[in-house]
Amino acid sequence: xxxxxxxxxxxxxxxxxxxxxxxxxxxxxxxxxxxxxxxxxxxxxxxxxxxxxxxxxxxxxxxxxxxxxxxxxxxxxxxxxxxxxxxxxxxxxxxxxxxxxxxxxxxxxxxxxxxxxxxxxxxxxxxxxxxxxxxxxxxxxxxxxxxxxxxxxxxxxxxxxxxxxxxxxxxxxxxxxxxxxxxxxxxxxxxxxxxxxxxxxxxxxxxxxxxxxxxxxxxxxxxxxxxxxxxxxxxxxxxxxxxxxxxxxxxxxxxxxxxxxxxxxxxxxxxxxxxxxxxxxxxxxxxx
Length: 288
Hints:
Number of strands: 8
Distance between the termini: 15 Å
Low-confidence stretches: none
Helix content: 25-40%
Order of helices and strands: EHEHHEHEHHEHHEEHEHH
């Protein structure tokens, strides 16, 4: 890598999301002179075979529940293979800063374990960072009063159960239910307007595979621990609360006490990078 060149940001989205969510932040970074690339993880985004019933109006509940999922069988290994390919190509042009949000934190951790030599820095925007096998199997020693699980349960679509990690959420159903709309907005993006949240809802993918919560997602001192890493705490996050974020930071720092998280705090919601992109662009610019 050319150490004197400006870094390129590679963005990894969270659950039920895709590359489109990063567009506002990428625009702000471009105005600051930064290159960036937003990844569509396997089964997500414009090229995924998302159930047609999800987009039809009025929606057909039976068709939506029975349609095959592009996320069926997708594993953390698939995510890592895809992102490593992007990172290798990007690294040919200079340093790479890998950035993830929410569930995307598991993928960026595993990528850092796999190719630490290709990364200039890893940045977690209120993203999952798991460092102890017990975090996969046992309750965490932290009070979690997040709002997302309860709100998401209200838009969950039953599936056939053949893939236990698969979750289908009908985000678009919130358009017709003001109370549900308000609950989801409070959990995900309370620091924005209703209009902006409607835009986000329409960009969301319905399906996610939570089987990525597996041991390969745990950060390792001999891989991830070799890469400088930043955690951006989002103090207004009601999905992954501040207490949970701080718990993950403490646990990860115990794995690499010689290389602790560089910690920053923004007063923003879980997807504040979509609703308030300039705030996040300025911080990322200052970090690099």
